[in-house]
Write a structure and sequence with these properties.
Structural class: mainly alpha
Strand order of the largest sheet: 1-2
Strand content: under 5%
Largest sheet: 2 strands, antiparallel
Shape: elongated
Radius of gyration: 21 Å
Number of strands: 2
């Protein structure tokens, strides 16, 4: 028979078998924003998130995105070490068109169409 409760692996407090740990949720919600953390702090926190899940996935996912500094697709979490390293990078800006186009391999033809203001309906 399945137990109705389990112990949080961090706080060792009983919680419902399928419920998040309230203390872990509170801790995660009160963590500092990315810009107030050093690169080492961000990496340390990212490493700590790799253990058993004690909060709702949506909260964990939002925190990972905060630490990495960009939207993170769930399949990227399979390359956890790369995300940890990326969290240490300096504050990032959103890529612009030049950044994106520069990643296209040279053998692939690229066309950039610029629509002039007022010509959108043509």
């Amino acid at each position: 028979m399945l137990e109705s409760h389990r112990l949080c692996h961090i706080h060792k407090q009983p919680v419902g078998r399928q419920n998040p740990c309230p203390q872990c949720v509170s801790d995660m919600e009160s963590r500092p924003p990315r810009e107030d953390m050093t690169a080492e702090d961000r990496m340390r926190e990212m490493r700590s998130l790799a253990g058993p899940l004690e909060v709702d996935f949506q909260l964990l996912h939002a925190r990972i995105e905060e630490l990495v500094g960009r939207p993170v697709w769930t399949h990227e979490m399979a390359a956890w070490d790369e995300l940890v390293q990326e969290s240490a990078q300096a504050d990032r800006r959103a890529p612009d068109l030049v950044d994106i186009v520069s990643k296209i391999p040279p053998h692939i033809g690229t066309y950039i169409v610029q629509v002039e203001k007022g010509d959108e309906d043509r």
